[in-house]
Amino acid sequence: MLLTIDPNNGLPIYDQIVRQVKFAIASGALRPGELVPSVREAAKQAAVNPNTVARAYRELQAEGVLRRVRGTGLAVTEDAPAYCRKERVKLLEERLRQVLEEAAQSGLSEAELRQLVEKQLRLLSRSRGRRGSS
Amino acid sequence: MLLTIDPNNGLPIYDQIVRQVKFAIASGALRPGELVPSVREAAKQAAVNPNTVARAYRELQAEGVLRRVRGTGLAVTEDAPAYCRKERVKLLEERLRQVLEEAAQSGLSEAELRQLVEKQLRLLSRSRGRRGSS
Amino acid sequence: MLLTIDPNNGLPIYDQIVRQVKFAIASGALRPGELVPSVREAAKQAAVNPNTVARAYRELQAEGVLRRVRGTGLAVTEDAPAYCRKERVKLLEERLRQVLEEAAQSGLSEAELRQLVEKQLRLLSRSRGRRGSS
Amino acid sequence: MLLTIDPNNGLPIYDQIVRQVKFAIASGALRPGELVPSVREAAKQAAVNPNTVARAYRELQAEGVLRRVRGTGLAVTEDAPAYCRKERVKLLEERLRQVLEEAAQSGLSEAELRQLVEKQLRLLSRSRGRRGSS
DNA sequence: GTGGTCTAGACCACC
DNA sequence: GTGGTCTAGACCACG
């Protein structure tokens, strides 16, 4: 469970954390009953203020994704995986829609747009490959 | 030159305006010497505060895309089209990269990711079609 | 809309604020469309840190009780009164139940318990009367 | 001497323990010279961390309600019953006052408030009856 | 050690 | 002026 924060993402940091936790649960990297990294640890790892992590975790509790185990930490709930898989699609579709809409407004033809998307997908799979083979 | 603002875009409104003006110039919809809508008019059309439009126009002047024509308004500069075409690609690639990277982090396989992108592209071209035929 | 905060209430301050706003809406003292006091103003009035008020207001937005009006403030939503009236009963019953349960555990007879409750209700209506007549 | 802990009470657990011990002494269920359950036993029975029980017992010793009997455990002092009876009324009145005050602030009329209180008292005496008959 | 709350104060986006 | 985000650091309750 490694958090990778980009402070210039546009998305608030706490939101990036919320998403990444949900994604980790959706993909099975975090399973029900497992503990998420402690507030302080996650904050250190992500080079972020503990309050910011705490806020993200608070929201995840409010959504029923995490539950508090007193004196122990925050654990993934039983319902979380199903919920997070739904959320994942929703969150990604929303963001994709926004960006593609903007691209469409830019006056590019559909062919040019597809070309742009293809280029980025290729770049992505290449960097993925690198990460995968390392 | 119609502005379409989405306040929940994540992008600040003034930035959305800056981008759309650049896009309009890049695509030839706005040509050197032409005037952009007045601050008040644009603000009314986009249902946005005039200060926000003013700020966007200020930035466009600072980048050399617009210039003041005393007593007349703001006109597109001669250098703007070349500049804006470069910007357009840069801005779109940057946004696309961010979103696709996030999608990649979400644990979706490349196939699933492509499927999502295709779905959104189809949705987009459909809504474009509608707008085109209206 | 005056906030009265008791830092030794046991209830977190942000929660006291959340409750009081809901109560004010439930009782009709705050109506749909009206603005709640600004974060800074409420913080000053309640002698509390603005962040604490902001957190309370954030939760009220998340519950759909308040909505943000950009650059203007936070307004009561249309749905808020119905929702808050339901909440009011729920919140009060929960608290009453806790306290009466504790009282019951204390070994008092039911008669003694009723006497205690009556005494407090009388004290309350007296202080209410004073406030009402002032 | 059975402890019934509600972790969502708002009251800290150690405080709930302190109160319940005092209540047991006030009502005569625990008499001077009698031993309270050992820290470990009480912790097991109440499903609570031993440290938390230890803290409660520490406070009860500081208040002069319990005293260490070397090698034996903690015993109720001679002065405890009188002291605890006073405390009981004080503690309950304080809590009742808080809750009723909050209820009053909620904008309910006195009649509605009384109705709420009656409802909870009835619920309480019913559950008491059940417990009594078991 | 864990999370939760609160304060203080900075900076940003928007009106 | 409005709310939103973030940092820094203190204190509390609990294990």
Name some characteristics of this structure.
two-stranded antiparallel ribbon, mainly alpha, 6% strand, Arc Repressor Mutant, subunit A, 2 strands, homotetramer, 134 residues, DNA-binding, 63% helix
Describe the structure.
Four copies of one chain form a homotetramer. The first copy, chain A, is mostly helical and 134 residues long. Chain A folds into two domains: 13-82, Orthogonal Bundle (Arc Repressor Mutant, subunit A), CATH 1.10.10.10; 91-133. Chain A has five helices and two strands; from the N terminus they run αααββαα. Chain A has helices at 13-26, 39-46, 50-62, 80-105, 110-133; strands at 66-69, 73-76. A two-stranded antiparallel ribbon of chain A has the order 1-2. In chain A, helix 1 crosses helix 4 (80-105) and helix 2 packs across helix 3 (50-62). The radius of gyration of chain A is 17 Å and the shape is elongated. The model of chain A has no long low-confidence stretch (mean pLDDT 89). Chains in contact: A-B, C-D. Chains A and B meet through helix 1, helix 4 and helix 5 of A and helix 1, helix 4 and helix 5 of B. The first copy, chain A, binds a DNA duplex (15 and 15 nucleotides) through residues 7, 12-14, 38-40, 48-52, 54-55, 57-58, 68-74.
Mean pLDDT of chain A: 89
Percent helix of chain A, as a range, is 55-70%
Helices and strands of chain A, in N-to-C order? Answer: HHHEEHH
CATH class annotation of the largest domain in chain A: Mainly Alpha
Uncertain spans of chain A, ≥5 residues at pLDDT below 50?
Answer: none
Distance between the amino and carboxyl termini of chain A: 18 Å
Largest interface, by Cβ-Cβ below 8 angstroms: which chains and how many residues each?
A: A-B, 44 and 43 residues
Q: Number of helix segments of chain A?
A: 5
**What is the global morphology of chain A?**
elongated
Reported by name, the CATH topology of the largest domain in chain A is Arc Repressor Mutant, subunit A
Radius of gyration of chain A: 17 Å
